[in-house]
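hey can u run this one w/ D-serine bound, need the C-alpha cells asap thx
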Amino acid sequence: MNYEHLKKEDPEVYELIQKEAGRQKEGLEMIPSESYASAAVLEATGSILNNKYAENYPGRRYYGGCVNVDLVERLCQKRAKEAFGLGDNYHVNVQPYSGSPANLAVYVGLLNLGDTIMALRLDHGGHLTHGNPANLSAKAFKFVHYEVNAKTETLDYDAIEKLAFEHKPKLIVSGFTSYPRIIDFKRMHEIAKSIGAISMVDMSHISGLIIGGVHPSPFPFTDVVMTTTHKTLRGPRGAMIFCKKEYKEQIDKGVFPGMQGGPHEHTIAGIAVALKESMTPEFKEYTEQIIKNTKALAESLMEEGLKLISGGSDNHLLMIDLRPFGPGRGIFIEKALEAAEISVNKQPIPNDPSPPFYPSGIRLGTPAVTSRGMKEQEMQKAGKLIARIVKEFALTEMPLDREKRASAVKEFAASLENHPTIKEVKSQVIALASKFSVPGVD
Ligand code: DSN
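ok here u go:
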C-alpha cells in the first residue's frame, strides 16, 4: 500500500507504520494467533465504509443511508455460511468487534447473570474470556473450569463429563488459546446435551484450518460457534458468531444492543473478502502446509531436546515447556527471541508454577510464516535457531521474590544487546526470512 496521503498529512504515524512493516518483513512472525491479511482485505478494511453508522441489522437499522452497508453485511453473512458449508438451520452474526466482546455477547445473550458456565482453565489453554478471574466473564457468571490430564496434557473427556454432571452448567465452552491438540467437539456437544446445556465452540484459532478441511469441524452439531476473523482465517480484526436458528434472536440481541453499538462495516467488508479468499484451492493448500510446518517445527524442537506440552501438535501451534530449566523463564525467551527477530509469546502452561506475566511456557505457531511460502525445510531451520536461543537463555534464573522480577527482566534485556549468540541467530533469521515476500506488506 502506498499511503501517499498519510505520508503527507501525518508523517509521524506514516513512519511508525513503515517501521512496523519493516519489522513484519525482517523476521519470523511465529505467534500462532497472527498471520498476514492480503492487500485486498486491507483495502476493504481501510475503506470509506468506515464512515457509516448502521446500528441494528440489515433491513432494520436505526440510521438512514444503509443501502450499501446492508448489502455488504448480507454478503459477508452469505459467504460465512458458505465457507463452513452451513444451510438454513444456522444463522451468523458478523458484527462482533472482536473475540472478547463476541464471547461476552454469547453469554449475555443466552444466559442470566450468575448462571454457571464450564470452560477450559487459562493455564491449561483456555482464553481470558473463558472465565479467568480477572475478566468480566468471571465477575458476571459462575465459571467451573475443566483441565487437561496431568500426565497426557490432553483433555480427559470422562473427567469433563463427571464435572458437568456435578455442576450442571447452562453452557459448556470448548475452545482454546493455547491447546495444541484437536478437541473432540462431538463428545463435548454430547456431554452438554446430556445435562441439558448449550454447547459452544470458540474456534478462533482454527477457523481457517476448518475451512481448509485440515481440522474437524464443530458443525453441524454445536449449538453456538464463535470465531475471530484475523487468525488462521487471515481477515481483519473482528469476529463472527454462528448459532442454530433457535438461538438467533438471543445471539443477535446479545451482540446489539447487549454488548455493542454500531457495527464496523469496513471490518465486515474485510471479513467478506477474507472469506472469499478462504474458499479457494490456494487457501486449502495454505492450511495443509500449516499442519505440515507445525509438525516439522515440533520435530525439530524435540530433536534438540526441548519438551513440548502434550508431546507435539495436531494443529497450527505448539507450546514449549520451560519447566525443565526452571519456573518463570518464558519472559526471558520471548525477549531473547524478539532480539533475534523471532516473534513469539510467553504463555502459561498447565499447572504453571509461575504467575501469568512470568509464565513457564512459550507459545509458537506457523500460520504467518506459512503465508510467506515457507515449508518444512525452513521450519527445521527455525526450530534449530529457536532451540539454540532457548537452551542458552532459559538458564537465567527468575527470582522467586515478586519485587525483584521486573528488574531481573530489565537486566536480562540489557544483556542481550550485542550478545554474540543473538547477533548470529538474528543474521540467520534475517537471511531466512528475506527469501520470502510478505502478503499485504510487500
Ligand atoms: N490473544 C489471542 C491469542 O493470542 O490467542 C486470543 O484472544
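The radius of gyration is 22 Å. anyway lmk if its weird
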